[in-house]
Design goal:
The chain is of the alpha/beta class. About 30% of the residues lie in helices and about 15% in strands. The strands form 10 sheets. Strands 14-13-28-27-26-15-16 form a 7-stranded mixed β-sheet, covered by helices on one side. The protein has a 6-stranded mixed β-barrel with strand order 32-36-33-35-34-37. A 5-stranded parallel β-sheet has the order 21-18-17-22-23. Strand 5 (about 155) and strand 6 (about 160-165) form a beta hairpin. Helix 9 packs parallel to helix 25 (about 715-725) and helix 9 crosses helix 26 (about 735-745). It is globular. It binds iron/sulfur cluster (3 copies) and FE2/S2 (inorganic) cluster. One iron/sulfur cluster binds near residues 244, 246, 281 and 414.
């Protein structure tokens, strides 16, 4: 069996500093002071038997298997809970210890089913291993005494089962749930012999607070907690390291396989972003990749009302190429373009933008980052000089105050949330700025010092008020500003922000947040020591999204909270590769590395490598593409892995644009909403088939390795090559590493990146070049990338989207833990058990005045559209604000969102839509009904 068993040193590492020398079984070893004897022994290559210890959890000392003898000390201390002291001499194998350990094991085995040969964990069970290690040959106590062998099995969770009869009450699961995940769903109830694991107050796992992260399953040394996929398929026989394809945390996983079937995904302890943890999506929700809905054959049709016709790759590609060329011949070079996908690898995205620039001959390329984090790119570039977050995730461990703005990490970025909660439990303070009472505001052992529950659309007023307090109360870090920032722009900003209109008292009427709460939050942030800002789409998806990003950057610079560990301004990126798709030149005005197409020196670099000329004029942004399509000026489009007919705002407008195209080429896994308007469908690859890299929110470039061959027969980058070639611009690579080599050769921040380096170092955070050969954890340490930090005045301008008598409520949108964005992946997994339809959350008072109760169908009407959802009366909502998710096409949340957008980047204002809710007898459209709407495929049932 070649399954990778991850190295486990028994107890967690102790941070560096002073070291001590000890001798274990005659071998000298030097370890940081405070290291356990167990870990020191493992470092020296000596494995001490253990059951309750694992290096992802604090030592607990309950199983008594890891006993050792220490010269000069009485007794046999547990090595997992005994720290090394200078000069200590330890013996791990003596007749006395062996006898003691056999005695302990005998007790465990006497209360354990003897079904090893048929147990799903056979060959992968620490209890079984330890029985062998201690040389257990005989169990003197029969099974006829009191035991737990009739313990019940809890199969309620769709992904793992809990078999109480096999539990040895080691508490690793309980500690994993509290220490690693931070959910505190499990407890050990009872004492002594009666000690049993229970989820919540004796509920089933599904009925408890459990969020199905799987940390307990991973920690369990027996098959008590076991993945159902392992029970069904057997233990894995090979493994491949790869990267999660869901969110921007970018967790590293070991895909454990049998043949080309995934048995389970195990978070990689060496993963730079996740250090061995994961959420329910990455660990369990990968079944979509082999779902029967996958469309694996290329298809074409002349009109969108025709049935699809499955064709060969060659026919599909030549049909697409000829159609695109015909449109250009008849309507001009600029009449076609494309959208790259943040779900795809850097290499795939790089080639699609290259295809558009070199083969299409224009810059009509944009990406789904347009609708999420484009203001981050703009705002951070203006102020700091780089369109990316400043820190690695580990940095949050060193923060004294964390401000979370417009983000819901426990749902959207769960593994980062676990890390954040750990920092909060260790004493960091939390400020939450969000209209909703998200879980972080109050959850087990976590309570925000301040929750500024502002009205949607008033972020800029709040950040200005915070900065006003900093300036007015003398909390500016003058030394930092003088040394690191522009004097002129700071002076101008200081005068602007000091104006009375920016004071908490003046803005309270706009934001709805009491002035004293704002003052307390500002003082906390400015005087913390290390204060860090983490933010999400609740910042960017506003008409002043870019302004708000710059407002946060101003605040960080004014208080000196930038350029070291524990501080910074950090976007929590939505999609797995949204950072990468931006880095790779997916914007119509920027070539890879955020360099403007109008710069002849930059164009010359690419023109030399690509052997073509590049249009110096920026191309169309996504909303401009829609407008141009409706005007008849833009008629052909290539869409790589994005369901814009569900994800983009004002769906009616999007559909009108798609319907106006003469040729739409969609490359995707499934026949999605957008594909209803397509003439050519090119099957895509899932992350399990891809070969390339993703870049996460920390700028961390992670390898995505194929665990199986592409089910469609082609990698997506090969398809881009073939389409470009068919259009007269030959593109050819032998393997995807060559694409990364081209990226590195043309893009300074990637100069030191190659697949070989990534394989050797695990991951690299850009910039990675001669100046930073091993990448860059923290940005702007000695100076800002742009030189001096630039302050920008950020006057608050209310959005044009206003409530009125007809639309008196504000609708805001977001994600939920178990589902992902448009749900194309998660809806095709058992995750639907947690969230099978989108619901609209409403404050009790707003519900009562409209006669709405939980479970009622309601219409949501805005000035652009109407949809029907079920209501949920929720105390998370402030009065006047309603909230929903957009994971189901039937719910059509984006039918009601408007075309208002960020002034600088056109990022849609998803977070503010004036609506009215009313009870209705209509029922929400179900997923199945949406499915049934799909056009037939000729020759397929
Ligand atoms: S799956 Fe995660 S949340 Fe659920 S009990 Fe296990 S560790 Fe806790
Ligand atoms: S379920 Fe597993 S990890 Fe939890 S106490 Fe039982 S044996 Fe230990
Ligand atoms: S936190 Fe994000 S990257 Fe990590 S496992 Fe979950 S979805 Fe995947
Ligand atoms: S491993 Fe040390 S007491 Fe269990």
């Amino acid at each position: 069996m070649s399954k990778v068993r991850q190295v486990d040193l028994g107890t967690p590492a102790v941070p560096g500093g002073a070291t001590v020398n000890v001798v274990v079984d005659g071998m000298p070893v030097n370890v940081p002071a405070g290291t356990s004897v167990m870990r020191a022994a493992a470092t020296a290559g000596v494995d001490i038997p253990r059951l309750c210890a694992t290096d992802s959890l604090e030592a607990f000392g309950s199983c008594r298997l890891c006993l050792v003898e220490v010269d000069g000390r009485p007794g046999t201390p547990a090595s997992c809970t005994t720290p090394c002291t200078p000069g200590m001499t330890v013996r791990t194998q003596t007749p006395k210890l062996e006898k003691l350990r056999r005695g302990v094991m005998e007790l465990y085995i006497s209360d354990h089913p003897l079904d090893c040969l048929t147990c799903p964990a056979n060959g992968d069970c620490e209890l079984q291993d330890m029985a062998g290690v201690v040389g257990l040959r005989d169990v003197r106590y029969g099974l006829d005494g009191a035991n737990h062998l009739d313990g019940a099995t809890d199969d309620s969770n769709p992904y793992f089962s809990f078999d109480d009869s096999k539990c040895i009450a080691c508490s690793r699961c309980v500690r994993a749930c509290s220490e690693v995940q931070g959910t505190f769903a499990l407890t050990i109830s009872g004492r002594g012999f009666d000690s049993r694991v229970s989820a919540g107050a004796g509920e089933s796992f599904m009925g408890s607070e459990c969020v199905s992260c799987g940390a307990c399953v991973q920690a369990c040394p027996t098959s008590t907690l076991q993945e159902k996929s392992v029970i069904e398929l057997g233990v894995p026989t090979r493994s491949v390291k790869t990267t999660c394809a869901y969110c921007g945390v970018g967790c590293s996983f070991i895909a454990e396989m049998r043949g080309d079937e995934v048995v389970r995904m195990v978070p990689d302890k060496d993963g730079g972003a996740n250090a061995g943890h994961s959420c329910v999506k990455g660990r369990f929700a990968w079944g979509y990749a082999t779902h029967r809905d996958r469309q694996l054959e290329p298809m074409i049709r002349e009109r969108i009302t025709d049935p699809w016709r499955a064709v060969s790759w060659d026919e599909a590609i030549s049909y697409a190429a000829q159609g695109l060329q015909r449109i250009q011949a008849e309507h001009g070079i600029g009449a076609i373009g494309g959208i790259t996908s943040s779900r795809c690898t850097n290499e795939e995205v790089f080639l699609v933008q290259k295809m558009i620039r070199a083969a299409f001959g224009n810059n009509n390329v944009d990406t789904c980052a347009r609708v999420c984090h484009s203001p981050t790119g703009y705002g951070l570039k203006q102020t700091f000089g780089t369109s990316a977050g400043t820190q690695d995730f580990e940095s949050v461990d060193h923060a004294d105050v964390v401000v979370v703005i417009g983000a819901n990490p426990t749902d959207g970025h769960p593994v980062f949330a676990s890390r954040l909660k750990k920092a909060l439990r260790a004493g960091a303070e939390l400020v939450v700025i969000d209209p909703r009472r998200i879980d972080l505001v109050r959850s087990p052992h976590v309570e925000a010092a301040e929750h500024l529950q502002l009205q949607p659309g008033t972020n800029v007023a709040i950040v200005n008020a915070l900065a006003h307090v900093v300036v007015a109360e003398g909390l500016v870090d003058r030394a930092f500003v003088a040394e690191r920032c522009e004097a002129d722009s700071f002076a101008e900003w200081e005068a602007f922000i000091a104006q009375e209109e920016n004071s908490p008292e003046s803005t309270a009427g706009i934001t709805g947040v009491p002035a004293d709460a704002v003052r307390r939050a500002a003082r906390l942030y400015a005087t913390a020591g290390n204060a860090a800002i983490y933010y999400g789409l609740g910042v960017t998806e506003h008409s002043q999204g870019s302004t708000m990003v710059m407002g946060m950057a101003n605040l960080a610079m004014a208080t000196g909270n930038i350029g070291r560990t524990g501080v910074g301004v950090n976007p929590l990126r939505g999609q797995n590769n949204v950072q990468g798709s931006c880095d790779m030149g997916s914007f119509p005005h920027e070539l890879p590395g955020y360099r403007h197409v109008s710069d002849p020196a930059v164009r010359a670099i690419f023109e030399a490598v690509w052997g073509t000329t590049i249009d110096p004029e920026p191309g169309l942004r996504i909303p401009n593409m829609f407008d141009a399509a409706i005007d008849g000026r833009y008629l052909g489009m290539f869409i790589q892995g994005e369901d814009i007919a569900q994800s983009d705002p004002n769906v009616a407008h999007v559909k009108a644009a798609l319907g106006a195209l003469e040729l739409l080429v969609v490359q995707d896994l499934f026949l999605n909403e957008t594909a209803k308007f397509a003439h050519v469908f090119l099957p895509g690859t899932s992350f399990l088939e891809k070969d390339g890299t993703f870049t996460n929110a920390e700028r961390r470039i992670n390898r995505v390795r194929p665990v199986m061959a592409p089910k469609s027969g082609k990698q997506e980058w090969q398809v881009a090559c073939e389409l470009a070639t068919a259009m007269g611009y030959p593109m050819d690579y032998a393997q995807s590493s060559e694409i990364m080599d081209e990226i590195a050769a043309t893009t300074p921040s990637f100069a030191g990146v190659s697949f070989a380096r990534l394989d050797a170092e695990g991951s690299l955070q850009w910039p990675c070049n001669d100046a930073a050969p091993h990448g860059t954890r923290i940005m702007h340490v000695d100076g800002f990338v742009r030189g001096k930090g630039h302050f920008v005045d950020t006057p608050f301008v209310p959005t044009d989207e206003r409530t009125n008598r007809k639309f008196p409520l504000i609708l805001t949108t977001g994600r939920i833990l178990s589902q992902y964005n448009v749900g194309a992946q998660t809806r095709r997994t058992p995750n639907v058990l947690w969230h099978h339809e989108d619901v609209v959350e409403i404050h009790e008072h707003d519900a009562e005045t409209r006669g709405i109760r939980t479970g009622d169908s309601v219409t949501i009407t805005s000035r652009v559209g109407e949809t029907v959802l079920r209501a949920k009366v929720s105390d998370r909502m402030p009065q006047g604000v309603v909230y929903t998710t957009f994971h189901y096409p039937g719910s059509g949340a984006n039918v009601v969102t408007t075309e208002y957008s960020d002034w600088a980047t056109n990022c849609p204002e998803y977070k503010v839509t004036a609506v009215e809710l009313a009870p209705t007898s209509r029922v929400p459209v179900t997923d199945d009904e949406m499915h049934a709407e799909h056009q037939p495929v000729a020759g397929r049932s």
